[in-house]
Amino acid sequence: xxxxxxILVLGGNFGGIGLVHYLFKITIPSLQxxxxxxxxxxxxxxxxxxxxxxIGSPRALINDKLIPESKILRPLSEGFSxxxxxxxxxxxxxxxSHDASKRTVTITPVGSETTxxxxxxxxxxxTGTTSSSPLWTFHPDPALTSAAFKSLHASLPAAKTVLIAGxxxxxxxxxxxxxxxxxxxxxxxxxxxxxxxxxQSPVLGPRAQAYLETHAKVxxxxxxxxxxxxxxxxxxxxxxxxxxxxxTDLYIDATGGKANTEFLKADWLDGTKRVLTxxxxxxxxxxxxxxxxxVYVLGDVVAGSxxxxxxxxxxxxxVASAFAVDFARKVIGVEAGEKKNPGLLGGLVGLVFGKKDxxxxxxxxxxxxxxxxxxxxxxxxxxxxxxxxxxxxxxxKVKGKSFLLELVDPLLTGDKWKA
Length: 419
Ligand SMILES: Cc1cc2nc3c(=O)[nH]c(=O)nc-3n(C[C@H](O)[C@H](O)[C@H](O)COP(=O)(O)OP(=O)(O)OC[C@H]3O[C@@H](n4cnc5c(N)ncnc54)[C@H](O)[C@@H]3O)c2cc1C
Ligand SMILES: *[C@@H]1O[C@H](CO)[C@@H](O)[C@H](O)[C@H]1NC(C)=O
What we know:
This protein is α/β, with parallel strands linked by helices. The chain has eleven helices and 21 strands. A seven-stranded mixed beta sheet has the order 7-6-5-2-1-8-18, with helices on one face. Strands 12-11-10-16 form a four-stranded parallel beta sheet. Strand 10 (161-165), helix 6 (169-181) and strand 11 form a beta-alpha-beta unit. Helix 1 (14-34) packs parallel to helix 8 (309-332). It starts with a strand and ends in a 6-residue tail after the last helix. The protein binds flavin-adenine dinucleotide and 2-acetamido-2-deoxy-beta-D-glucopyranose (NAG).
């Protein structure tokens, strides 16, 4: 047997966790059917040791009873301990630089200054984004996320005013939760744009605003952004984009995140610092002359991504199929969909069992367009399915009641993928 093919996965949350399981469960067995002598090793580089189910954050920030922290922060070991060390390594580290020509990634372990270079044969980038508040994404120090929840649990019961910046789904959901569970708090939402949900179908924002105002008594203010904040004994004083100031007991930043791509060269990235792709199978584009063979990207860090966990359900099989096709061509020597020269015995087996030894084919990515569910409190909200209006009671059934917590186990264990 030759040395294992080294697959490096950067980022271990929604995209990275799902991908590692998909590769072990579906892609690698299919390649080994084609050539049983091939072995694989996956290294997952990520600073966190827990899965963070951030979809549950808007409710989990209310208190530790509605959604206990242990339900949205779950040890990665629960999902990965089934893989043997010769198959899988978890490196608790940040990727800090990348050398395309040497095919290496330099990593910096959490809490350390010493770096380490990892060689890869194939590379997947799934490093997502970092929001300014650790309530929505991990920060380089993953412990800050738990600390942020605990701090809000302690301060919300005494707060009289809460100001939330960000008119996207996260800001709207958070405003709805706080206003519902603390009806005495005056909640103000600064949208920063001309309407709520500016990146969605234009019918949705005004509906979200009407729901927030009538059902949750949230005040919505448009076209105003927070430029700075200053915390003192009497609360937080915000400086706003119109030059005015506003004082609030609590300030929650729910504006979007920045792509985690500091370790990549700028000529691989778009204007939002997300990774450019060269085709519809999430192969990385590079700068035109760098070695990007076997380099892929998935999740929120993809240029033009929908920034949704739902997109990963389709993207993961697609990007894994690109890897499988590339591996079959380069390492095994067969083209997509083609049969490996079977030899006499293999040919007979093929005749009996069908195209078991056919090389992998590319899987198309067909995202669900115009689909979004935004609960506003436990009883309703707004949403669209393929552009159609989602009735409010249905929003509550689908997401508002339990914040999709039923998705945690299948993601963590890999059970969501059926071989
Ligand atoms: C409040 C909230 C509600 C949401 N609701 C929904 C919803 O209802 N439906 C839906 O489809 N989507 C929803 N989303 C979006 C969804 O959570 C994201 O699209 C999804 O998490 C993206 O996955 P990802 O793997 O790309 O990024 P992430 O899940 O952010 O994972 C990125 C990982 O990379 C790690 N990392 C960062 N930098 C580095 C580095 N340099 N080296 C190594 N690792 C690194 C991070 O620590 C993290 O583990 C919601 C998001 C939020 C915040
Ligand atoms: C791509 O980047 C490499 C390394 O930085 C550089 O040598 C090369 O000239 C770049 N190619 C293009 C087309 O810009």
